[in-house]
Amino acid sequence: MIAHLQKMLVAALVGITAFVAWLSVVLGYSGWAASGAVLLVIAFGMTLAAEFGFLYRSFDRLDPRRPLPRQLVKAWLLEVAATPRIFLWQQPFRSRTIPDSLRAPAGSTRRGTVLVHGFVCNRGLWNRWLRRLRDAGVPFTAIDMEPVFGSIDDYVPIIERAIARSAATTGLSPVVVAHSMGGLAVRSWAAKPGNDARVHRVVTIGSPHQGTWMARHSNSRNGREMRLGSAWLARLEALERTLPPSRFVCFWSHCDNIVFPSRSATLPGADNRHLEAAPHVQMIHHPAVIEEVLRLVDDIDHAPS
User: Fold this and answer.
1) CB of 149 within 8 A of CB of 225?
2) What angle (nearest 5°) sits at the alpha carbon of residue 140, between those of residues 138 and 146?
3) Is the predicted pLDDT of residue 283 greater than 80, yes or no?
4) Which sequence spans correspond to the domains of the chain?
5) Which of 178, 206, 261, 263 has the fewest CB atoms found within 10 Å of its own CB?
6) Distances, alpha carbon 110 to alpha carbons 89, 91, 139, 292, in Å
7) What is the C-alpha separation between 144 and 123, in angstroms, rounded?
8) C-beta separation of 182 from 156 below 8 A
C-alpha cells in the first residue's frame, strides 16, 4: 500500500512541475519552470532543517552529547541526499526488485537475517542491504508491514512468519535488523512468551524505544503509540520486565532528526552504540551497522542457536 501512496506523491510532484512549466511557457515566463523546481527542493531542505532544529533544541545547553553545528550540517546534507532516493524511487518503484533469498550457498553455516522497516516505509528501504547480503551469501528476508497506519501490534504476525521461515530454512535462529518503528514491532513480537529465545540477536537502528518527540505530530494509531510516555510503550515495558535486553544491539545518533531525545533510541542493559553525525534514514547505511550484522550472522558458536 505504501508503494501506491508514494507513487501518487511522485505523480503529484511531476504533475505540479509539468503544470508550472506549461504555464510559464504560455505566459512567456520560461524561467518560472526552473524556479518552481528550485522552490520544491528548497521547501524539502527547509522541512528537514526544521527537524534538525527541533532536535538541537531537545538537548540541554550543557549536555556533552549535544551535537555541534557542523555535525548537524553534515547530517542534514546526508539526509537531503538519501531521503528522496528512498521515498521517491526505491520504495514506490523498486521494492520488489530484489526478492528474498533464504537459501545459503552449499556448505555455508551463516544465520539468516530478517529485515524490518519503519514508519511509512516498505522493504524497498533495504535495497542496498539486500544486494550486499546477496553478494556475501547471507540468507535474508525483508518484510512489508501493513496496515501502514495500524497498531504496531498488528505487525507481530508478519514478523512471526518471517522469523519462522528463516529458522526453518537455515536451521539457525536469525539475526533481526530493524529500523525506526520496526524495532518496536520486533520488541512487541519478542515480548510473547518464548519468542525471545528464537532470535540470535536483534539490531535496532534509530528505533524510538522510549518514544519520540516527533510523534506528537502524528494522528495515526502507530504514530500515537510512539509518543513519549505513551500507554502502548508502558504496556510493552511491563511485558518485558522478565526478558533480558542483552540480545539487543541498539544503534543511536545524537543527529537523529526523527527520534529524539536521542537516548530514546537506546535500551537499558542493551549494547547501545552511538553513531556520530548520522541522520535517521542515512543511519541504515552506516558502515558500523552492516559490519556488525555481518559479524553476527557468522556467530555460530554462541547460544542461542
Assistant:
1) no
2) 165
3) yes
4) 2-93, 113-297
5) 263
6) 31, 28, 8, 14
7) 6
8) no
pLDDT tier, 256 (very low <50, low <70, confident <90, very high otherwise):
very high
Cβ-count burial 134-144 (b if 16+ within 10 Å, e if not) = eeeebbbbbbb
Count other Cβ atoms within 10 Å, centred on residue 126.
Answer: 26
Distance CA 36, CA 49 (A): 20
| Sheet with 271-274: strands ordered across | 140-142, 113-116, 175-179, 201-205, 248-252, 271-274
Q: Can you say how many angstroms the Cα of residue 301 is from the centroid of all Cα atoms in its chain?
A: 29
Residue linked to cell 526478558: 243
Report the alpha-carbon distance of residue 239 to residue 228 in Å, rounded. 18
The C-alpha atoms of residue 290 and residue 296 are separated, in whole angstroms, by 10
In the CATH scheme, what is the homologous superfamily, with its name and number, of domain 113-297? Alpha/Beta hydrolase fold, catalytic domain (3.40.50.1820)
pTM: 0.93
Q: Would you state the cell numbers that stand for residue 95, as one nine-digit string?
A: 521494492
Our CA angle for 143, 148, 149, nearest 5°, is 145
pLDDT per residue over 156-185, tens digit each? Answer: 999 999 999 999 999 999 999 999 999 999
What is the residue whose three cell numbers read 518503528?
A: 181
The secondary structure element, H or E, covering residue 204 is strand 201-205
Angle at 69 between CA 71 and CA 181, to 5 degrees: 55
